[in-house]
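Hi everyone, sorry if this is the wrong subforum. Our group has a chain we'd like a structural model of before ordering constructs, and none of us has done structure prediction before. Sequence below.
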Amino acid sequence: MNSHDITLYTDGTQNGVKGSIILEELGIPYNVKHVSLEKKEHKEPWFLKINPCGKIPAITDHSKEDFHVFESAAIAIYLCENYDPEEKLLPKDFKLKSQVIQWVMFEASNLAPAHGQANYFVRYTPEKIPHVIKAVTDLVKGYYSILNKALEGKEYLVTDRFTMADAMCYPWVRSHFFSGIESIDEFTNLTAWVARIDERPATQRGLNVPFPDRMKVFRENPEKLEEFEKLIQSIFFANRNK
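Answer:
Right subforum, don't worry. Here is the predicted structure as tokens:
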């Protein structure tokens, strides 16, 4: 692979950083194209040619005739199957590989959608409905419980080494506060797992693409989180009463 054969289209969301984390952990040089969700650039015609769903992240592999890949799980699998000869993130052993992909599908089918619902009702709707917020945050915590049990006696989800499974689940869990769950201390294995991944330099670099780690900024500056909530609400609900 030549330098910068991959272009990553992303924004600083929990979904967006999954692509940059995978690229950084694999050590693949790449270009970054910031696709601003606030400016609705993800719905512009040029980007819809790359991802017809109009969502980030997406990649273009210029070494393969500008081949486009969208959906974060598909991106992770594509990159690992094509650019991970050392099995850094995806083992070749068929059982271990299957286990990794199972957790990636768990993230895509369960963990991510649950956080999306929680984010919407906790952060984005002007009207806060307590019983709905409790329902969506309880759902997220249920998935945390599953992860916590899976980590019993292990450092990572599959065997004792970091894989694509951990890379995909981590961005959601480490930003639990954004989804209305202030603490995950009750999930001791999960808490230790997050702390362990926090120490990975490549993952931390990935969190700072395309700009400084947004969740860290929000955690340390509550006023920034409040400003962001108001911005998103203005975008989501601008045309509600028109």
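For your construct planning: The mean pLDDT is 95. The beta strands are 6-10, 30-34, 58-61, 67-70.
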